[in-house]
Specification:
It contains 4 helices and 6 strands, in the order ββαββααββα. Strand 3 and strand 4 form a beta hairpin.
Length: 152
């Protein structure tokens, strides 16, 4: 997996455990539907929509992909795009993703091409960091590089 996370990424106010669950579900799907050793890309950034700023997280695989009718049903409870039974799952993962991101005021899209892979883009409202005074902020890449250097 390759992760692209820019320095200075905006903050999002989110339930950390729920956001981990969202990412685990999306990443699990990417792994299950990719060939062994297939690349998975995770990119973070910002998105402007309707005058609001969102933190955006995109997960792209280069797996089997889905047809448009499968994409349309991806967040239905118990819907499985793969009906062969060869790929494990309950058909609840993307239903849970949809519920959690919408409860946070965000959303998601799925773009896919058969044989080329699938990209899931999640977005959660960004928080004005000037309103977060006194709340611990996430480390930047520079902070973690410095911490690693001082701990050795």
């Amino acid at each position: 997996m390759v992760a692209h996370v820019p320095d200075g990424l905006l903050a999002a106010r989110a339930d950390a455990a729920k956001l981990r669950q969202v990412l685990a579900n999306v990443l699990s799907n990417a792994v299950k539907h990719s060939p062994a050793g297939g690349a998975i890309d995770l990119c973070c950034g910002a998105r402007e929509m309707d005058g609001k700023t969102f933190v955006e997280i995109a997960v792209a695989d280069h797996g089997i992909g889905m047809q448009p009718d499968q994409i349309a049903r991806v967040s239905e409870r118990f819907y499985r795009a793969d009906t062969s039974g060869n790929i494990p799952g309950t058909g609840l993962g993307m239903t849970i993703v949809k519920e959690i991101v919408e409860l946070h005021g965000g959303g998601f899209t799925v773009d896919s091409t058969i044989g080329a892979g699938t990209t899931v883009v999640l977005w959660i409202p960004a928080v004005d960091i000037t309103l977060m005074a006194g709340i611990p902020q996430p480390l930047t890449n520079r902070d973690t590089e410095g911490a690693a250097a001082t701990s050795q």
